[in-house]
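Priority: medium. Attachment 1 of 2:
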């Protein structure tokens, strides 16, 4: 069954996969790395224009590394979770300094890059270099949990057992395995969705343990994260002010950006600690790397 499952997924993927720039034959490893970082907790529809603008502006890691970190933060715009922009800039600097400007292909070298965790490293190794790696995100965990284990959903994080299971599902030839990994991800994103899975359209439906068990419900329904009024929203409001004037804004502009003084202070401290903004002179704040204008 494992090989059959993967091959069915691949056949479906060949005709049903979305045409995404980081999946095209001419996609560079840098394009794939940028896409993987942008896609963390962000829908494809929002990533597509940002990815295009990023690659148009910085087609290689060296191009981004030559810019101040604040430029990357400014360009990140409203994509969300802006620490990813800072980590991506740090990645570009490390790739340029350590690897001659080329995204490394070995897993341990990828893992040594700033902000690159196990999932991202495996994804780049598989999709950029055609390696046989278990690429396991939320969608793949859900797909494999249903198809192989009969459970409605996977856990909140990837376990060692899940990595072993997904590895066993992959075809032996590395390039075929990489394609299977992409197919599993796409099936989870488009067909084996969390709330309304399209089981009748799934190429794995014949042997899916969850469907054969009557599609038992998940034990606990997860609630969506609230955003309005949170510290995360406050941080976004303060960072937006600095993006508009990256060389420095006064403390009064920071105060006007968020009304709650206690929450504003907490958000400002967090942004400073994360290196997303800098304290220029105690009364002005800006993005890192921008000289303050007089």
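Attachment 2 of 2:
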């Amino acid at each position: 069954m494992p090989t059959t499952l993967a091959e069915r997924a691949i056949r479906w993927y060949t005709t049903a996969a979305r045409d995404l720039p980081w999946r095209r034959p001419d996609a560079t490893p840098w394009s794939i790395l940028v896409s993987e970082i942008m896609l963390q907790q962000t829908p494809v529809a929002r990533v597509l224009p940002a990815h295009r603008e990023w690659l148009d502006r910085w087609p290689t890691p060296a191009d981004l590394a030559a810019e101040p970190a604040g430029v990357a933060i400014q360009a990140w715009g409203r994509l969300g979770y802006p620490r990813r922009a800072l980590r991506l800039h740090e990645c570009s600097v490390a790739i340029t300094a350590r690897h001659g400007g080329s995204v490394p292909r070995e897993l341990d070298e990828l893992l040594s890059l700033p902000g690159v965790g196990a999932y991202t490293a495996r994804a780049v190794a598989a999709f950029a270099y055609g390696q046989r790696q278990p690429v396991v995100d939320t969608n793949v965990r859900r797909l494999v949990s249903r198809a192989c284990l009969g459970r409605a959903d996977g856990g909140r994080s990837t376990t060692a057992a899940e990595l072993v299971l997904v590895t066993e599902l992959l075809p032996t030839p590395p390039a075929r395995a990489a394609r299977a990994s992409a197919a599993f991800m796409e099936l989870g994103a488009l067909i084996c969705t969390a709330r309304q899975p399209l089981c009748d359209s799934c190429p794995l439906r014949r042997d899916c343990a969850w469907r054969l068990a009557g599609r038992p419900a998940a034990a606990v329904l997860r609630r969506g994260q609230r955003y309005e009024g949170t510290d995360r929203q406050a941080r976004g409001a303060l960072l937006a002010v600095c993006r508009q004037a990256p060389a420095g804004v006064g403390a009064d502009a920071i105060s006007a950006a968020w009304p709650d003084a206690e929450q504003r202070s907490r958000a400002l401290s967090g942004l400073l600690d994360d290196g997303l903004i800098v304290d220029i002179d105690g009364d002005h704040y800006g993005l890192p790397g921008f000289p303050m204008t007089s």
